[in-house]
Specification:
The structure holds 2 protein chains of 2 kinds. Chain A is mainly beta. Helix content of chain A is 0%, strand content 54%. Chain A is built from no helices and 11 strands. Chain B is mostly beta strands. In chain B, strands 2, 4, 5, 9, 10 and 11 form a 6-stranded mixed sheet that branches. Chain B has a 5-stranded antiparallel sheet with strand order 1-3-8-7-6, with no helix packed on it. Chain B starts with a strand and ends with a strand. The chains are: A mainly beta, B mainly beta. The interface between A and B is medium-sized, with 22 and 21 residues.
């Protein structure tokens, strides 16, 4: 049963600390998305990659957020330094080749709390 | 900015009734998708309708798309308690999806 996996599932940290979230897309999916979900803003696209290359990271605060795909099986989202307003659920999703209009498969999310 | 806006924000119905949820959007799209999210989980894809389609069915789901009105509706027939979740419409354009804020559906047993 192919699934997107994310680690950690929960993270509590203090303001100023570095946070790294990891995602393993479904094998064979070449497009990976990072989303952030909050009650106020809903689901926001932060960045996405195709064939490991960043295509769009305009939704991401550049000064503290960074997203990478070191290889086809791993995507990372890093926040440094973290702030209380970064508290949210962060989702990774992947999609099959051909085009990203196909359905996206979401991971279970990382619930981040920054104190 | 949010592209899709769902209506109503919350819906409560009795098991066995039909649930209708609406989505409106502002700009041209390639396709429109509906997703479900159970509490504490990730989103799950339900159905996709392309811009040149008007209606699509999948099991108890029926989705319509009216590109002239820039709107879509999702109908869940014969609802079950297990359908209780948040439902999101997402518009596809420029190689990405933009999600609405979602509709909370409660199905009472």
């Amino acid at each position: 049963d192919a699934r997107v996996t994310q680690t950690p599932r929960h993270k509590v940290t203090e303001m100023g600390q570095e946070v790294t979230m990891r995602c393993q897309p479904i094998l064979g999916h070449n497009t990976v998305f990072w989303y952030r979900q909050t009650m106020m803003q809903g689901l926001e696209l932060l960045a996405y990659f195709r064939n490991r290359a960043p295509l769009d990271d305009s939704g991401m605060p550049k000064d503290r957020f960074s997203a990478e795909m070191p290889d086809a099986t791993l995507a990372t989202l890093k926040i440094q330094p973290s702030e209380p307003r970064d508290s949210a659920v962060y989702f990774c999703a992947s999609a099959k080749p051909l085009d990203s209009y196909n359905e996206q498969f979401f991971g279970p999310g990382t619930r981040l709390t920054v104190l | 900015s949010q592209q899709g806006e769902e209506d109503p924000q919350a819906l409560s119905i009795q098991e066995g009734e039909n649930a209708t949820m609406n989505c409106s959007y502002k700009t041209s799209i390639n396709n429109l998708q509906w997703y479900r999210q159970n509490s504490g989980r990730g989103l799950v894809h339900l159905i996709l309708i392309r811009s040149n389609e008007r209606e699509k069915h999948s099991g108890r789901l029926r989705v319509t798309l009216d590109t002239s009105k820039k709107s879509s509706s999702l109908l869940i027939t014969a609802s079950r308690a297990a359908d209780t979740a948040s439902y999101f419409c997402a518009t596809g354009a420029n190689s990405k999806l933009t999600f609405g804020k979602g509709i909370t559906l409660s199905v009472r047993p």
